[in-house]
Amino acid sequence: MKKEKALVVFSGGQDSTTCLFWARERFEEVAAVTFDYHQRHRLEIDCARNIAEELGVKHYILDMSLLNQLAPNALTRDGIAVKEGEDGGLPSTFVPGRNLLFLSFAGVLASQIGARHIVTGVCETDFSGYPDCRDIFVKSLNVTLNLSMDQQFVIHTPLMWLNKAETWKLADELNAFDFVREKTLTCYNGIIADGCGECPACKLRKRGLEEYLKVRR
User: Angle at the Cα of 160 (from 66 to 165), degrees rounded to 5?
Assistant: First the structure.
């Protein structure tokens, strides 16, 4: 696959940055796409832009503000608190249709720039119950994209069956451990690197890091 081109769906967070390094190891040319849906912290877009620039990756930013209008939640409204799901419900950070739209538009962009491979950091192991992070959804959408555009896209999900500790391990194997730890933005409160330590995203990231550091050689 080294001679082919890939497009990484890129937020500047731990998972998508690990996927960016993963793609750079496997494909001759890699581009990244970030979606501006007027998310809670605009710093996310700046972070993604800075990482792409530092790594020399062509970076596209697409306007997805319509998603903000359609899907009020904790990531699009300051007045909605970040809360984990209760009684089997979804967290307040779930953005309905986000990955459906992101991957669909990534497919359109990939077609325009000649990239057959699309890489996303969704994960079914530590996925907070988000239905659009499931393997069955990605496989279904992959088929739909191919049929809708008469293309042969391949959607890659390097983290699908990894927990957060294993994701840290993968970053380490890609010689990106320090980069991911120090320069990515996962925190729902908009704090780069280790974050606030209190929001659900930070707790998950921190727990995985601590688990990995116990066994790191």
Answer: 110
Nearest to 155 by CA among 171, 169, 144: 144
CA angle 169, 55, 163 (to 5 degrees): 20
pLDDT 10s digits, 84-127? 645 555 555 556 778 898 999 999 999 999 999 999 999 988 65
Cα dist from 42 to 49, 77, 90, 128, whole Å: 11, 12, 24, 23
Report the half-sphere exposure of 172 (CA within 13 A, side-chain side).
Answer: 12
State pLDDT tens for residues 189-213.
889 999 999 888 898 899 999 999 9
Contact 161, 167 (CB under 8 A): no
Question: What is the strand order of the sheet 5-9 is part of?
Answer: 58-63, 29-36, 5-9, 117-119, 154-156
Give the long-range contacts of residues 172-175, CB within 8 A, separation 24 or more.
Answer: 172/212, 172/216, 174/18, 174/21, 174/22, 174/25, 175/21
Copy the structure tokens of residue 134.
Answer: 């499931």
User: For the chain, how long is the longest CA-to-CA vector?
Assistant: 48
